[in-house]
C-alpha cells in the first residue's frame, strides 16, 4: 500500500518541530508529575513543550518563562499553559494537542473543556484547579482580576494539518459572542502545523520583513557609518501590524527563540565594547539601496 506523499511530508514537518522543541523548550519543561514511560512519556513531553512554544509565539516571552507557565496536569480543565503579560495587560490561555502523525486538529470535546476552564478562571474557582494550574493562576489571576483593561487570548495549538471542525468553530464563536457582549474581551488564535513550521523556518533563515517607509524630515550622517534618521507616522507603524502581524514584526529569532545565537552575542558585544556604535548597528531596520529625495543612498 502506497502512503500518500503529503502524509510523509507532514510527518517530516512534525519531526522538525519536535527537534526544535527538544532543543529550545524541553530542557525547561517539568515532567516530574508524569508517571508514563517510553513513547507515551515523550508524547506528553512534546505536548507540554508545544504549549510553551505557543506562549512564546503569542506572548513574546522567553522559552524558560513560558515553560514555567505550563499548567497541564490533573484537573487542568484543558488549560495547558497560562500567562499574564503585565505590559500588554493580556491573559494568554493555551490548549495544546500533539499529533505524532501530523494528522488531526483540536477536538470539540477539548474545545468545550477549555471554554469551561476559562469560565472557571473568570469566576476564580481555584478550588476546582489541580496543583499546577492553581499555582500559576494564583499569581496570574490576581493580576488579571486587578486590571482595569485586561484582555484574553485563547490559543489552540496543534501539530495537525486539519482545520477546526464546524462544530468547534461554532462553539468558539458562540462563547466569544457571549463574553464580548460589552467589549472585545476574548480573541481566539489557532496555530497549526503550517504556522508552527513557518515560524521555525523563518527564524532559522532570519527571513526579514520588507517595508516601504515614508520618512519625514529625514537627514543623513556619514560617520562613523552611513545612516538615515527621520520621523514616521504612527498610523503607518500601526499598518505594519495589519500587513505583517505582530509575530513577524517582532520575530523571536533575534531575541527570544535563539538566545545563544551569533546575532545576540554580537549585539551584546557591541553594547559592552562599542556602545557609541550601537545605534548604527542595531536600530532594527535595514535600508536597501534606494533613491530618497533625489539622493541615492
Automatic annotation (TrEMBL):
This is Abortive phage infection protein C-terminal domain-containing protein. Residues 250-286 form the Abortive phage infection protein C-terminal domain. The lineage of its organism: Bacteria, Pseudomonadati, Myxococcota, Myxococcia, Myxococcales. Pfam families: AIPR.
